[in-house]
Design goal:
single chain, 664 residues, alpha/beta, 11-stranded mixed β-sheet, 6-stranded mixed β-sheet, 20 helices, 35% helix
Length: 664
């Protein structure tokens, strides 16, 4: 038996499965709560549910996670310092600390200015921010034509600090300096998240005596080594949803289907056709930010089982994730009783933080980073730290000496910086009240429902049924919008929810993945005409998908004449630019460069040349002065290999040293 271990760490649950890789059959599964800020406990608990003797026989391990997705969706990315070279940003970016220095290149990769003239400015910037940020991002004008300035500034910054440094050209070869800059920023913000996840997995594998190599799923449905994932965590931002899609196809045997993945923080919709995940023509969009990351075509909304249900004249769900009341009551035995007698804020001051069901507890910074707090944030944090049990809004008010409206923003900042954990009412709590999905403390959920229902003059069960309906309606309208992107949101809503005599038909199977999905399946079928599929192991579909992906490596070369009518051609690669004496020579060298890049990459996974499929497409622009001499040629190469089968001999044994280049 050729055993593989799949692990998925989501916002609520960490899943682990064992699979016979020779047959694709799931042998065992296990679920445990994801634990914050220390992920090790949750991962260890999930693996404790698997047979210990089998763990020693694991030959291949692959993982996925929604942690990066959730971090970006909730706006909780770690602070990053941004250095712009040769241009001023023309759009919003999720950074507070940035500088602009001279440098950059023109469209042919020729330098415009020398950035070293501003290295003193860079040094001052790094020294003044390195205790405020977790990483640095660098983006230079036309770095895809020539990355030398980004690399020079990166080398200089690395001499000044040990913090991670990310360059824009390392993440995308496409034009679009703003999008490339944004991608670099998000990548830098996610480095601590990915590092902690990988470190946690590695620690538990060592504890369990598992010596296999390890890989992680990227957001295009392919697998990548841990080294690459740590350099480019933004490429794993949709790791969980991509694994869900691949897992759904594997579990159902349907190579064409659409998947709805309901997690703790988000609901994600994606599609696979003829066994190939549908890839977005543009970059991945997450949390409202458009990146240059190649990803599965996906619709994602900040609505999950742990989304915060809060009131402000009407019922709102999300976008922030909170700890469900029913779960908090298990962690803090006196919590349910405390909820009953806690002071409740007036409906006039309710906001996403100040709620009758909002409680807070100190968690500390998730990754032991020294991220500075303002004096007032520190004051609020100290008030929360003074109690071992979760504290209500008015308990904080008494200790701080201010009205809740005065510290609402500071409290929200503490949650974003992960110093404080927010506890509140969620759709999962609503399902507990209704008795549909009961995993934790139903009494605490019922108390919370009564508190919120009083604000809107409803019975608790009535309010919870409405919350369940709202989640189902959101899933239905999101699914319709996925197939009808040209329609406006109000048109989709009218079509799906306000047309009692019509039903939108989806002409492919709809697969549900996620622990609570059965609670929403009936309403979903009422709203849409669909073939709904709940496969066996639907609750661990992401972990299944993590094991069944392939290594897919893409490389490209851009070739242009040096000048109009010239026989000399310039080739632009991620290594820089080269010149060739003819069009044919440039094409031949470009294709060979792509093949070498693909084979070198696949060799890291123990995949020999005969085990790799390569496809190279040549796209030409032949307009203007000549149709015989193209103005531009782009070579696009794709290599595909299956790492879980690498090195397997006739006895079913596997050479682990070649799996991923990482020993855990």
């Amino acid at each position: 038996m050729n055993l593989g271990l799949g692990i998925d760490t989501g916002g609520t649950y960490t899943d682990a499965i064992l699979m016979d890789l020779s047959t694709g059959a799931v042998i065992e599964k296990s679920k445990a709560l994801t634990t914050y800020p220390d992920l090790i406990l949750g991962i260890s608990n999930a693996m404790d549910g698997l047979t210990p003797d089998l763990l020693q026989k694991i030959k291949f391990t692959s993982v996925s996670t929604t942690l990066a997705t959730n971090t970006t969706l909730e706006g909780k990315g770690y602070p990053t310092g941004l250095i712009l070279i040769g241009y001023s940003v023309a759009g919003d970016l999720p950074v507070e600390d940035l500088i602009e220095i001279r440098g950059g290149h023109d469209t042919d990769g020729n330098p415009l200015n020398d950035p070293s003239a501003d290295f003193e400015v860079v040094e001052e910037f790094v020294k003044s921010t390195q205790n405020k940020v977790a990483s640095y991002a660098i983006s230079s004008y036309f770095s895809v034509r020539n990355p030398e300035h980004e690399l020079a500034v990166k080398e200089y910054v690395q001499k000044l600090t040990n913090l991670p440094v990310v360059c824009g050209h390392e993440l995308s070869r496409a034009l679009g300096v703003y999008e490339r800059t944004l991608t670099a920023v998000l990548n830098a913000q996610l480095i601590p998240v990915t590092h902690q996840f990988v470190k946690s997995i590695s620690t538990v594998m060592n504890q369990k005596g598992i010596s296999s190599g390890m890989m992680i799923m990227k957001c295009d449905g392919s697998l990548v080594s841990i080294e690459e994932a740590l350099k480019r965590p933004v490429e794993s931002v949709f790791s969980g949803p991509a694994a869900s899609l691949v897992g759904a196809a594997h579990l159902t045997g349907k190579n064409t289907c659409v998947t709805i993945d309901v997690g703790g923080t988000s609901t994600d919709i994606s599609m696979i056709q003829n066994g190939i995940p549908s890839i977005s023509d543009s970059g991945a969009i997450v949390g409202g930010w458009k990146t240059m990351v190649r990803a599965i075509q996906m619709s994602t909304s900040a609505l999950g089982g742990d989304s915060h249900v809060w009131l402000s004249q009407e019922i709102h769900i999300g976008p922030r994730r909170v700890v469900p009341l029913s779960l908090a009551a298990l962690q803090y035995p006196g919590f349910a009783a405390k909820m009953k007698c806690a002071d409740r804020p007036s409906d006039r001051i309710l906001d996403p933080v100040i709620q009758g069901t909002s409680f807070f507890t100190a968690s500390g910074p998730s990754f032991s980073l020294d991220i500075a707090l303002s004096p007032y944030e520190q004051k609020v944090y100290d008030a929360i730290c003074s109690e071992k049990e979760p504290v209500s809004v008015y308990e904080i008010s008494k200790k701080v000496g201010d009205h809740p409206l005065m510290f609402s923003k500071a409290l929200d900042a503490l949650v974003s910086k992960r110093y404080v954990t927010h506890i509140g009412f969620t759709p999962t709590d609503a399902l507990h009240v209704l008795g549909i999905y009961v995993k934790w403390d139903r009494e605490a959920a019922t108390i919370g429902a009564k508190i919120l229902a009083d604000y809107v003059n409803k019975k608790p069960e009535e309010m919870c049924r409405r919350i369940r309906e709202m989640v189902s309606e959101k899933m239905a309208t999101d699914l319709a919008a996925f197939f009808l992107p040209s329609l406006k949101a109000e048109e989709i809503r009218s079509l799906v929810l306000d047309s009692p005599h019509t039903k939108l038909k989806i002409n492919m199977p709809v697969v549900l993945i996620g622990a609570p999905v059965m609670a929403y399946s009936e309403k979903l079928c009422d709203l849409l005409d669909i073939e709904l599929v709940l496969p066996q192991y639907f609750d661990v579909g992401n972990a299944v998908g993590a094991l069944t992906g392939d290594v897919i490596f893409r490389s490209d070369v851009l070739i242009r004449p040096k000048s109009v009518g010239s026989n000399v051609y310039i080739s632009f690669t991620e290594s820089g630019k080269t010149e060739d004496e003819s069009y044919q020579e440039a094409i031949a060298k470009g294709k060979e460069w792509i093949k070498c890049r693909i084979y070198d990459h696949m060799n890291l996974y123990g995949l020999t040349q005969d085990a790799v499929r390569i496809d190279i497409q040549q796209k030409e622009i032949k307009t203007g002065y000549s149709v015989e001499k193209p103005l531009e040629i782009r070579l696009l190469g794709v290599g595909i290999g299956t790492p879980r089968k690498a090195g397997i001999d006739n006895d079913g044994q596997q050479d682990q040293k070649n799996i991923s280049g990482v020993k855990v």
